[in-house]
Automatic annotation (TrEMBL):
PANTHER family: ENGB-TYPE G DOMAIN-CONTAINING PROTEIN, MSS1/TRME-RELATED GTP-BINDING PROTEIN. Keywords: Cell cycle, Cell division, GTP-binding, Magnesium, Metal-binding, Nucleotide-binding, Septation. This is Probable GTP-binding protein EngB. Pfam families: MMR_HSR1 (PF01926). It comes from Roseovarius ramblicola. The lineage of its organism: Bacteria, Pseudomonadati, Pseudomonadota, Alphaproteobacteria, Rhodobacterales.
Length: 220
C-alpha cells in the first residue's frame, strides 16, 4: 500500500505518552504577554508556538492540553489575543500562544503592529523548536495560512500542521479536508511530514500533541 504524504501521526507509545502527560500535568503557568521583541524572556529552554487564523481554537486547545479551563483566554471575538502570550511548562519548555492572524476585530493600525511582531518573532527566535500551525478542520488551509507557512519556510522554522475541531466534521468531509491539507502542504520545505488531528472537546489527538512537545524538549 502506498503511504500517503503527510500521514496522521501515530499515537505515542507508553513511554512517550507518559512523558507528555507528566509535562502537562506539572507546573503550567502564564508567564507574560509580550508586545515587543525586547520583552521576550531568555531563550534558555525549548520553545514551541501555536499559530493560526483568528478563532481557530488556539486558546481552547492550550486549555485542553493543560487541563486548565482558564489558563489561556479563549474568546468568540476574532483577534482578541493581541500579544505573544508565554506559558511555562515546568522548567523545560515555553509554550507560546501567538496572535491570531487574518481578520480581526481591531483597528487596522493595531492589526498591522501585532502582525509585524508575529513575523519578527517567527524569524528571529533561536530557541523555537517547532511552530504548530493550527487549521480548522471544517475549512482546511486558507491563503492566509499559506502566507504564514511561506514565512516559516523562509525563516527555516520547522512547522507541523495541527487540525482543530475534528469532532465537527463527518468522515467524508474529513477525507476531503485531509486531501486538501496534504496538497497545500506539499510545496513547503519547512513542513513536518505528519499531521496531528485534534478535538479539544473530545480529547482526540491531545496525547499525541503532548508527547510531541515533550520530545522536542528532550532532544537537548
Amino acid at each position: 500500500m502506498q503511504r500517503l504524504p503527510f500521514p496522521e501521526a501515530e499515537p505515542p507509545d507508553t513511554e512517550h505518552a507518559e512523558a507528555g502527560r507528566r509535562l502537562f500535568a506539572g507546573e503550567v503557568d502564564f508567564l507574560k504577554g509580550v508586545v515587543a521583541m525586547s520583552g521576550l524572556p531568555p531563550d534558555d529552554r525549548a520553545e514551541v508556538c501555536f499559530a493560526g487564523r483568528s478563532n481557530v481554537g488556539k486558546s481552547t486547545l492550550i486549555n485542553a492540553l493543560t487541563g486548565r479551563k482558564a489558563l489561556a483566554r479563549a474568546s468568540n471575538t476574532p483577534g482578541r489575543t493581541q500579544e505573544i502570550n508565554y506559558f511555562t511548562l515546568g522548567k523545560s519548555h515555553y509554550l507560546v500562544d501567538l496572535p491570531g492572524y487574518g481578520y480581526a476585530n481591531a483597528p487596522l493600525a493595531v492589526v498591522r503592529k501585532w502582525q509585524a511582531l508575529l513575523k519578527t518573532y517567527l524569524s528571529g527566535r533561536a530557541s523555537l523548536r517547532r511552530a504548530f500551525v493550527l487549521v480548522d478542520a471544517r475549512h482546511g488551509i486558507k491563503p492566509v495560512d499559506e502566507e504564514i507557512m511561506a514565512l516559516l519556510d523562509r525563516a527555516a522554522v520547522p512547522f507541523q500542521c495541527v487540525l482543530t475541531k475534528t469532532d465537527k466534521i463527518g468522515a467524508g468531509s474529513r477525507d476531503t479536508v485531509l486531501a486538501q491539507v496534504r496538497d497545500r502542504l506539499a510545496p513547503h520545505p519547512a513542513a513536518y511530514p505528519e499531521l496531528i488531528l485534534t478535538s479539544s472537546e473530545k480529547g482526540e489527538g491531545l496525547a499525541t500533541l503532548r508527547a510531541t512537545i515533550a520530545a522536542l524538549g528532550a532532544e537537548g
